[in-house]
Amino acid sequence: MKTTQQSVTKATLLSLISGLGQFYNKQYFKGSIFLSVFLLFLFEMFTFGFTALANFISLGTTPVVDNSLFMMIRGTLQIIVTLIFIFFYVLVISDARAIARRHQQGLKVNTVPKDNLRSLYEEGFPYLLTLPAYLLMIFVICFPVIVTVFIAFTNYDFQHITPFRLLDWVGFKNFLNLFVLASYRATFASVFSWTVIWTLLATTLQIVLGIITAVVVNQKFVKGQAFFRILFLLPWAVPAFITIMSFSNMFNDSIGAINAQVIPFINHLPFVNIDAISWKTDPFWTKTALIMIQGWLGFPYIYVMVTGVLQSIPEEMYEAAKIDGASPFQRFSKITLPMILFATAPVLITQYTFNFNNFSIIYLFNEGGPGSVGSGAGSTDILISWIYKLTTGTAPQYSVAAAVTLLISIIVISVSLIAFKKTNAFNNEEMM
């Protein structure tokens, strides 16, 4: 085909005003759309954008008249819109350069609007299909997260309630306070350590129970497997809210079924003498109860998942192991357990991340109590429930809560990525 003398450099320079590069490449329809978007963005910037960004930096100058929180939200929205336009701007320049090269090489270039639309449909259909979802994700998920990030760097607390008081940027002060101020340091250390213990023990318990019940029920010698499968699904079938509230009543120190009926019944056994346990007034026993309850609530899901894995393991593997003289424990440790972990590693990791932020059981059982470890946190509060109390108490500390939220996110994301990488979880699908 005949080549032209289109200049890639000239197309790039003209594209500094979006659309002109496409006009230079004789793609007038595409250039008109890009130029319209460019002019629309400029109009938005001069009518709203520059003011929003300036207010975002200053967070206002006059109390009551200026609402610092709204200014932050508008500024965040403007930052997102600007970043989206910058991405679009780079794509426009890249497109102009690519089309100029096609001209130089004598390749076909769609210059007719109908051909442009057909090419967009045929080559860009996946992008058109997913674009609304990405935009929705940006404004519904990313937007609130970014606002939370910015709040963590302000002094937003009960002494600075907008619009009556203005907010100020304080940098990393809130993060430093968690580790420097004695009150916050002690509370954060206590809550964080219990959060880790709770996550490890409760999740491991539900995983172990789920695997054991699935392995036992799926043995050929077990009669009435259908009955047991239904029985083990009951904790999962009942809404967790109802189960947690029921257990909260059962573990009541004075009139709960555990102290009033179960323990006296056990005491009838020979050489057994157990006193009533302070399930909801002693931090140790409250934590013990929480771990046991979560084991009960969480094991059915693991049970169902592991049951599916067990049914997919070829029977020939067990037969070969028997011929080689492997004991039942060896068959379990060398065949069953590796296959379970191989297939379920990503889900098991997510169980740990879920319990790290499992607010409902902590709050519904005893509202994070008993007692207090300072800064509004109870002795059984985990980080997520402490955040709730920081924002809903009589003296809310929104900025500190935002800082703790960011720390939680960093911890969960980092640990999850490390675990996924160490277990090679995402590559398992290619190997199966």
UniProtKB/TrEMBL annotation:
Domain ABC transmembrane type-1: 192-419
Keyword Transmembrane: yes
UniProt membrane topology term: Multi-pass membrane protein
Transmembrane residue ranges: 33-57, 69-92, 133-154, 196-217, 226-247, 289-314, 335-354, 398-420
GO molecular function: ABC-type maltose transporter activity
GO biological process: one example: maltodextrin transmembrane transport
Annotated compartments: Cell membrane
GO-annotated cellular components: maltose transport complex
UniProt superkingdom: Bacteria
Sorted UniProt keywords: Cell membrane, Membrane, Stress response, Sugar transport, Transmembrane, Transmembrane helix, Transport
Entries under Pfam families matching the protein: BPD_transp_1 (PF00528)
Gene3D superfamilies tied to this protein: MetI-like
Role according to the record: Part of the ABC transporter complex MalEFGK involved in maltose/maltodextrin import. Probably responsible for the translocation of the substrate across the membrane.
Family as reported in the entry's similarity comment: Belongs to the binding-protein-dependent transport system permease family. MalFG subfamily.
Name of protein: Maltose/maltodextrin transport system permease protein
Native species: Brochothrix campestris FSL F6-1037
